[in-house]
Amino acid sequence: MGSKNQATGKSRKKFRRLLLLAFVLTAALVVAKWSWIDAQARTVVALSPVLEAPVLTPAVEAVTGEPCFTDTIIAGNPALVVRPPGQG
């Protein structure tokens, strides 16, 4: 009965090491490829209103805010300036 518990303990340790390794590799890939991941996220946000996906569009609208629209004159010409919400 003791050998069964030892085998189970070794199996758990092996599983934990494998899980830790997977976590470390995932974190390293996220850090190394962050610009690519950011570009993909921005693409989803930009295309979701155009594609009008039934689940994606409401999710993106809930996460992002309403832009601020302002009519102004630039170099003597009327222009519509659109800014993101907040101080940006």
Structural overview:
With about 90 residues, the chain is an alpha+beta fold. The protein has one domain (about 1-85). It contains 3 helices and 2 strands; from the N terminus they run H-H-H-E-E. The chain has a two-stranded antiparallel sheet.
Helix content: 55-70%
* Tally of helical segments: 3
Rounded to the nearest angstrom, the radius of gyration is 25 Å
Structural class: alpha+beta
List the helices and strands and how they pair.
Elements: H1 2-32, H2 34-51, H3 56-63, E1 68-74, E2 77-83
In a nutshell, what does this entry contain?
The chain is 65% helix and 16% strand. The protein is an alpha+beta fold and 88 residues long.
Looking at this protein, list some descriptive labels.
two-stranded antiparallel ribbon; elongated; 88 residues; 3 helices; 65% helix; alpha+beta; single chain
